[in-house]
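Appendix B. Extra example for self-study. Work through it before the problem class; the solution is given directly after the inputs so you can check yourself.
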Amino acid sequence: MIKIRSLVKDFDGHCVLNGVNLDVAAGDIKVVMGASGCGKSTLLRCLNRLLDVTSGSIHFMGNDITHKDTDVRQLRQQIGFVFQQFALYRHLSVLDNVTLALRKLRGLSRADANEKASFELEKLAMIDHRHKYPAQISGGQKQRVAIARALAMDPSMIVFDEPTSALDPIMSREVAALIRTLNEERVTILCVTHDVALGKVLSDNVVFLDRGEVKAEASFDYLCHDHPDAEVRAFFGRGESR
Amino acid sequence: MLPFIEILATLAEGVAYTVWVTVVCSVTGVGVGLTVVALRKLEISSLTIFLDVFTYVFRAVPLLVMLFIVYFGFPSLGVKLSPLLAMVLSLGVIAGAYLGEVYRGALQAVDDHEILAAQSMGFNRWQILLLIEFPQMLRFSFPGMVNEFTTVLKYSPFAYTVGMPEITKQAMALTGVTNQGIEIYLAAGLLYFAIYRILLLALQAVENYWRIPGMKPL
Amino acid sequence: MMQGWHTFFMDLVEQMPLILHGVGNTILLGVTISVTGLIFGIVVFYLALSHNVIVRSCVKGYISFFTGMPLIVLLFLMYYGLPSWGVRLSPFVVSVIGFTMNIAAYNAAYLMSGYNSLDAAEIDAAKSQGFTPLQLFKWITLPQVLLLSVPALSNQVIRNIKDTSVAFLIQYTEFFARIQELAASNFQFFKAYFFAGVVYLLLVSLVVLMARWLERHIVIPGLHRTLDRQS
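Solution. Structure tokens for the complete assembly:
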């Protein structure tokens, strides 16, 4: 589904991504890990063109989306994005957070949009909270709404940016289970995180990003115990104690 | 045809009056505002109600009406006032009503623990007000004060209605003898804008001078 | 003294039709400029968010100039100045144009400060969903900023009502102009202006009540954390 080749992104001469290669197959779940500042968020932002790449290519469903004539809005509607801080629209109820894009971008009637949104909220056990505002629900609930908002658009894939960083450990585990379930339902997922525990729940294999480069793509076991670089072993070793 | 520069020079004769009215009314406003907020501290309920009514009325009645009551209305009660005093009693007191509210908000931003600490050290309430609360309140309220002072400047042209020879009055006199209204009022607008910018710069300098590291204005 | 008030009220009743007509004109002007000032203020605010540096600095200049110059000078410029170019506008038209330019600058400034308290992540989220800049403005930015700015915007309406009294200086026959006539006819200046003050107090109170009602009925939990009343 996604094929990234030699992706470079620099900000005023400061190189954040330095030749990244990454593949995500349809139905796959891909976990990208790394310490903060390793370029994870930048990578995601290049993916839906919130940022323009400096060089390299990103193929999404066969098309190079780094081209100038890419329909950015079409692209963005196909990639569901779940943000670190959830980024729910504060002035809209839970239900309207999910329906806004359906109504304004897909042109659905309010009734149809409500039906579609209710279906997704039901699935995420948030239907009872549909009339509340974002400030009235917990972090974990906001996360679910953010996921429902992404799912409602029937995206080709969903991208998670640090989905557990704003949650306590118990909620983190719930969210991890939820993302797994989504993937079992054949939703393609790209998840970026520095939470080793989350990474382990989601996938056996992980991509390790360090200073803008893919350092390794291997199993947790290997990265934790056998990787030649002590720093890498230390990073993944953190997950052992949790 | 008067050249633009000459128009500016003529109008500039009114600048001193404009600045004078602005300064006197602003100072009055600060005095009234501080008095209001200090009297509120007495927590006498009838006095507080009076202050609430005062604040509400002086913020609700237009300046022009207040000015006319004072300047044209008071003589029928046997009180004749100079134009400047009339401006002070209308514009100055109205500014005071607004500033009283600005100060009240700023006073709430002072940390209760500091007041508690002062009390436990044996300061009386007036000492606490003058030494602990007011110095912080004045700094917190700086943006609000700047806002009010510039408002006073922008309402100062009303002084022409009571015959003060400030910028607008000069402009009207000049339009009476020439046919260059556009240039004249444009020049007046530029003069006011220049005074406004200089006032902002001056107040900015004052704020920087009094600023305490780590204390942010509201 | 009571005798004086009695004759004053007799005169007042006699001129009541004219005075009521004046009140009507005051309200007409107040409502018109509040609406046009808000609409134009939103347009200025939209332009202020432009990616174009030239547009942005023009908007900045506009806001700065019109909040830095007395409204009355602008009104005099149009009313006493434009005729020398052969353009004669009615007092009402001059008032609407002048007030709108002035109020829009203030409203745009309030909306800008509301915009600064928005959450950048929400903007990114909306972009990620595929909204165009205009859709983003219409459905996310503007609703939030308007809700956040209700106290500032309603204070502006109160100011507008009070400031309509300025229009009498350019011969617009609103309420205060009628009071002038009344005072000039019976020389009861204090009573006439005092009465005017009471009427403005009532008009402003009406707006205050409406603003309070509005603020109570559009409360969205969690959005008004930055709400502060200032005028």
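Self-check: Chain C has one domain: 2-226. If your reasoning did not lead you there, revisit section 3.
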